[in-house]
Amino acid sequence: MATRPAGKAGAWYNGSPTRLKRQLEEFMETVPDSIDGVQVPIPGARIVIAPHAGYDYSGACAAWAYKTLDLSRAKRVFVLGPSHTYYLEGCAATTFKKYATPFGDLTIDQETAQKLKEVIGMDNMPKDNEIEEHSLEMHMPYLYLRLQQTFDSPDQFPKIVPLLIGSNNGDAEKAVGRALLPYIKDPDNAFIVSSDFCHWGSHFRYMVYSPTSSPSNLIKLQKGDPKPTGRPIHETIRAVDEAAIDAVKSGSHDAFLDNLQQTRNTVCGRHPIGVMMAALELLREEPGFNDKGLFSIVQYDRSDHSVELPSQSSVSYVSAYAVA
């Protein structure tokens, strides 16, 4: 099998090219034509963080990241995602030649993938696990549509480099970030970092609560507990997410790791984000890049904004961009 099938089409997003295009365009139409006082796409915004849930849940939030994404010079697009289908230490690269979407196929840059495999010591993704993995696939239709909007024909599209980033410690994240640094410095490369934020509920084994809505004052609830008498649960979810968002905005990889250590926030793409933050910290040490690579958060959303009972659940979504 040379092409990785679009396995979530028809389930996590519409499998009809016409309907899918209409939905994604409608999402993007809700995003302003200028963000932070700059016309979109943001010039030089080659790096984005975007969610990967079903489009009915996170598609509107993801539109903000994709509308800021500058692909005008892209010859290669890296997609960094976490593994949901098997435990992974280190990183893993695809062995497929193409990724299918309802709009058409995206071609893998196998040469670059091989070079990174040798530098980082990456494994190959098991094909069955990669086919089941949604953290990479959910970005491909959005990416394809943005490439259609940017280039005249599919034969001009940049190739993609899908990578799974495993459960690495901080030092390992810094090492992978250093390996990616030459590619981040090159303006012909763009990066999509795939992550949802707080997964709250018994299903996710994360049910923290703060009576004061403070991420420094968290207790653990149980599914059968009564409704808390203090501030509602959804305020705690927001506070925990805002603390993680502030850490991302700080540009400090260590600050991000410290925040996750403190709150145990279930940011599923914490390792892809950590790798990118480590790389961008190194980027700012390079001549001419001192003021680059800081994330701007452009959208925050949740699957449920009104969680009040321990029996409820919620997943959070964030879109961000960085100019490099």
UniProtKB/TrEMBL annotation:
InterPro entries: MEMO1_fam (IPR002737). It comes from the Eukaryota. CDD domains: MEMO_like (cd07361). Transmembrane segments: none annotated. It holds the Pfam family Memo. Belongs to the MEMO1 family. This is Protein MEMO1. It comes from Cylindrodendrum hubeiense.
